[in-house]
Hints:
The chain contains 14 helices and 13 strands. By secondary structure, the chain is of the alpha/beta class. Helix 9 runs antiparallel to helix 10 and helix 12 runs parallel beside helix 14.
Amino acid sequence: MELEQLCRFAVESNASDLFIKAFSPPALRVHGRIVPTDLPALSPEETERLANSIMTEEQIERFKEYHELDLAFTLGDVARFRCNIYMQRGTYSMVLRIVPLEIRSIEELGLPKSLEEIIRPKQGLVLVTGPTGCGKSTTLAAMIDLINRTRHCNVITVEDPIEFVHEDKLAIISQREVGIDTESFYDAMKYVVRESPDVILIGEMRDAETMRVALSASETGHLVFSTVHTTSAADTIERIVSIFPPHEKQQICLRLASSLLGVVSQKLVPRADGTGRVPAVEVMINTPTVAKLIEEGRASQVYGAINEGGYWGMQTMNQSLMKFWRAGVITEEDALTYAGNLTELKQMLRRGIA
């Protein structure tokens, strides 16, 4: 088996991920579930050969030293693949995430219309959050593509690795990959403001220094996008504040209150008919009420403001799930599985049934 054949097979099977592991047949993730294939089991020699086939000599040497590596590549007109190569039980293993070549719009993805409003300002911070594999990169790509189609501006992205590839439309887009075009997110962010950006995308805010630079950029006339591995807006604010030392927390709250435009937290929920998944999305917009809660360090009370903020285009995860459940798109069981607040959603479902 060649890796190209396996990748094509994964795309044709409508998979989101391809798993390659020694002593097991290749497996796929389809609509969020692992699906074994009927292909023969791979030997350790085969998995090593497949991994080496997509690494450069430099990457092979780096992998031998660190035993794990992230990279991305494009397979013709089929798809782009984000790949993590790692060792397990002394053998090579790989997980390849399939990234479509075509960037879908916010409307095509079924995302809330309010996301288009969040990105209208010319400066501020927009965060997209959620667990791994929830579609954060796809949502960010849709936002950046909307800007690309509607604004004359300079967009710079810093990613590890580059997933969706953007072509210049009205905007100029430069995409920098950690490990190839820059040493780290922090190094890239130190110099990005000298590159005359209007819009900056940081693939992930991993530490206090990167967050500090991102905040500074959002305060000095730039529109900044990034991701955080949190499950809700309130968790996101608390996570950011908690990363900084105690003597900085009050100042960070003040800065977040003034620069944060919104937080989009999402999960992918299986459709009731088994044909795919839909994005359940919590949307927090930094209204005056929300800004005051952040400024005063009362992030735990943000949920209530979101719950009552429909006029501003806000919605909680539970409200999003209820819309899909009422429309028959998802089952009650899955709605409860992905609930933002389980007790509250049970009560909402009981009222909905009644």
